[in-house]
Design brief:
elongated; disordered N terminus
């Protein structure tokens, strides 16, 4: 496999900063959503024990769910886009720094995230390679470099959040509403569906908080590794138009 990078090394520090800010923001909104979902389950518990709640309270809760979940989803999407942009920059820089024997090109470093099934495994391999390639190991020995355990923990959290699939779009689009439990035409099976769904959303939020915090750790540490490697190998300006064959 070969790759040709045009232009100079471009620092990924600014992208790392903004990605970190967005993932911290996502962790905060996920925490707020988790609290709201816990309250939602408490209200659903009233129905499970044969009670009811005022229609105005149900409508207000549905509105809060849509706003908070929509905000959380928007931040998560923006954070993911920025993360992939940062990843492309880090991968491109690594190739530019003439690391011999690399397997994953900048394009595929991002592309593997969009391949069904493989997207649960291959991106981890990409990060694993980049972590080693940007280590302080000698040029021909980078594949033997140690990788921080935090990378595996982070990816486990990412996979868990991807597999626990209770879509926020169901809430944002108003398809999951507590007000459907009110009135004489309320579907008795709807309560069980809501109960399961919001337990699932609560679990997604808790795992999402962990995944977001760990993402910040991975982004900051990998960016730092690359900055130190660049200082040692490329200097302040960095090499131009490098051709690397792997």
């Amino acid at each position: 496999m070969s790759a040709r990078n045009e232009g100079r090394y471009r620092s990924a520090s600014r992208l790392a900063l903004w990605a970190s800010i967005l993932f911290v923001a996502h962790a905060v909104t996920a925490a707020a959503a988790a609290l709201l979902n816990a309250y939602q389950l408490a209200l659903l518990g009233v129905f499970r024990f044969g009670g009811t709640i005022p229609h105005a309270l149900a409508e207000a809760q549905d509105a809060r769910q849509r706003v908070v979940t929509g905000f959380e989803f928007g931040i998560e999407l923006a954070a993911l886009i920025l993360l992939l942009t940062w990843l492309y920059r880090v991968s491109r820089n690594t190739w530019t720094l003439r690391t011999e024997g690399m397997q994953y090109t900048p394009g595929w470093s991002v592309g593997w995230f969009f391949v069904p099934v493989a997207g649960l495994v291959m991106p981890y391999n990409v990060f694993h390679e980049l972590w080693r390639a940007n280590s302080s190991a000698a040029a021909g020995q980078w594949r033997q470099a140690a990788v921080s355990p935090v990378l595996g923990v982070w990816w486990a959290a990412y996979v868990a959040s991807a597999l626990i699939h209770y879509s926020p779009l169901q809430v944002v689009l108003g398809r999951v509403r507590m007000t459907k439990l009110l009135g004489s035409h309320a579907d008795p099976f709807w309560l069980d569906h809501l109960w399961e769904f919001f337990w699932g959303r609560l679990l997604v939020d808790v795992v999402g908080i962990a995944a977001s915090v760990l993402t910040v750790v991975v982004v900051v540490r990998l960016t730092g590794l690359q900055k130190r490697r660049h200082a040692a190998v490329g200097g302040p300006e960095g090499p131009q138009d490098a051709t690397t064959t792997a």
